[in-house]
């Protein structure tokens, strides 16, 4: 097992990455100093796979536990209704300010559980046991928690750092292939925004990653975790612009998701991010700051991950452009794009006219 520390002063925490470590969660929590009752949140699918070893590890470490496994297995879990049910179950279980939450699952369980922890009795600690590749490389790190509103995704939330993150690579063995593949878009993102040699590693090992080679997945999770932790340490609340680079490809992706029938899953987020990164590369070329050679490398790697690189014909580019206007990160009327300069380096640009953005979108359909 390897550990990475997210250094955030009094909110610092350890992220454990390794094979077979879920069954050691209880002792890791004890070592982190958390006391009180553990309220374990998951859904039935993940619960069937991992709740039993989790509960026995917590009990072995001396924790009293209550589990809540009835979260729906889709975005509706991140709702005010489900949040209300979780609070009620926590009260019934006798949770108080000395209790803590343990989330086991992907980004959906993590975001909802983290937000429940952030708000229950004005905030209690939580532990994120991440069981999807997306959660292990992205959502479990950095403390963004929240729920959706009918108007859009992640519109209500809080920054609430976990007290501990457990990323057991063995849990990825049971992950559906489509979940692995779509999370690879976010993995490639880290190579483009931060680390050329990691990008090269992905070029060499993408086939193995797709076959769920656990050694390759361990390296991927470790490197992405390190990069995300370093970014979050420097800009925890997304104020300086640095954390915004984690949204590489996401402004275009947001438009694609909205145009395809909003966030209710007609085009998955990972697929939209893959196409969004190609669009950002195209924009970089038009701005004269990103070479065609690097754009072709980016496109090739995305293709090798089995992800699309063009906007589907059935989507209206006008609707994509319109959908992009609702981006949460918009300041005033101006969209800010994360644009690549080379593989491993991106910049923020707010000087792209709607006409330029439209022609970028058109060129990749
Ligand atoms: P998810 O949570 O829906 O998990 C994907 C599917 O895999 C689900 O059906 C889940 O039940 C199942 N699953 C989970 N672990 C499994 C395992 N080990 N074996 C078999 N099945 C398993 O999806 P996700 O991609 O992990 O997360 C998406 C969510 O993350 C979105 O709501 C998004 O907004 C959020 N997100 C948050 C952040 C953040 O910083 N907080 C960052 C990125 C994304
Ligand atoms: N997933 C983007 C962020 O955590 O800031």
Task: Give a written overview of the molecule.
This protein has 365 residues and is α/β, with parallel strands linked by helices. Helices cover 47% and strands 18% of the residues. The protein has helices spanning 25-32, 44-60, 80-92, 107-119, 133-139, 177-194, 196-210, 214-234, 250-259, 269-286, 292-304, 317-324, 354-363, and strands at 2-6, 13-18, 38-43, 65-71, 100-105, 126-130, 144-149, 152-159, 164-168, 337-342, 345-349. The strands form three sheets. Strands 1-2-9-6-5-3-4 form a seven-stranded mixed β-sheet, with helices on both faces. Strands 7-8 form a two-stranded antiparallel sheet. The chain is globular. The mean pLDDT is 95. It binds nicotinamide-adenine-dinucleotide and glycine (GLY).
Largest sheet: 7 strands, mixed
* Widest beta sheet: strand line-up: 1-2-9-6-5-3-4
Percent of sequence in beta strands: 15-25%
Q: List SSEs in N-to-C order.
A: EEHEHEHEHEHEEEHHHHHHHEEH
Low-confidence stretches: none
Total number of strands: 11
Please count the helical segments: 13
Terminal CA distance:
44 Å
Ligand inventory reads: nicotinamide-adenine-dinucleotide, glycine
Oligomer kind: single chain
Shape: globular
Please identify the structural class as seen in this structure.
alpha/beta
**Helical content, roughly?**
40-55%
Q: If you average the pLDDT, what whole number results?
A: 95
| Rg measurement, Å | 20 Å
């Amino acid at each position: 097992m390897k550990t990475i520390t997210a250094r955030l002063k009094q909110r610092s925490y350890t992220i454990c990455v390794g094979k077979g470590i879920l069954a050691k969660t209880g002792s890791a929590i004890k070592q982190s100093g958390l006391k009180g009752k553990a309220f374990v949140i998951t859904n039935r699918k993940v619960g069937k796979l991992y709740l039993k070893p989790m509960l026995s590890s917590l009990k072995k470490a001396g924790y009293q536990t209550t589990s809540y496994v009835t979260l729906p297995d889709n975005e509706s879990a991140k709702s005010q209704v489900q949040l209300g049910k979780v609070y009620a179950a926590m009260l019934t279980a006798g949770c108080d300010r000395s209790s803590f939450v343990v989330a086991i699952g992907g980004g959906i369980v993590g975001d909802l559980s983290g937000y429940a922890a952030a708000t229950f009795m004005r905030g209690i600690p939580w532990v994120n046991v991440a069981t999807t590749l997306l959660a292990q490389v992205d959502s479990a790190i950095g403390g963004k928690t929240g729920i959706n509103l009918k108007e859009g995704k992640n519109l209500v939330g809080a920054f609430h750092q976990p007290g501990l993150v457990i990323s057991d690579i063995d849990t990825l063995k049971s992950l559906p292939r489509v979940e692995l593949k779509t999370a690879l878009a976010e993995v490639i993102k880290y190579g483009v925004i931060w680390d050329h040699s990691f990008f090269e590693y992905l070029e060499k090992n993408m086939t193995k990653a797709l076959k769920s080679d656990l050694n390759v997945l361990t390296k991927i999770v470790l490197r992405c975790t390190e990069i995300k932790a370093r970014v979050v340490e420097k800009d925890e609340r997304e104020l300086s612009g640095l954390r915004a680079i984690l949204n590489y490809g996401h402004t275009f992706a947001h438009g694609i998701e909205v145009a395809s029938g909003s966030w209710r899953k007609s085009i998955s987020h990972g697929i939209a991010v893959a196409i969004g990164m190609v669009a950002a590369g195209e924009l970089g070329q038009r701005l004269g700051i990103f070479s065609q050679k690097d754009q072709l490398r980016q496109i090739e790697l995305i293709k090798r991950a089995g992800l699309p690189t063009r906007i589907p014909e059935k989507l209206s580019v006008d609707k994509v452009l319109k959908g992009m206007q609702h981006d949460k990160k918009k300041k005033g009327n101006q969209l800010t794009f994360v644009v690549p300069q080379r593989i491993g380096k991106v910049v923020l640009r707010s000087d792209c006219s709607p006409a330029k953005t439209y022609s970028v979108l058109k060129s990749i359909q």
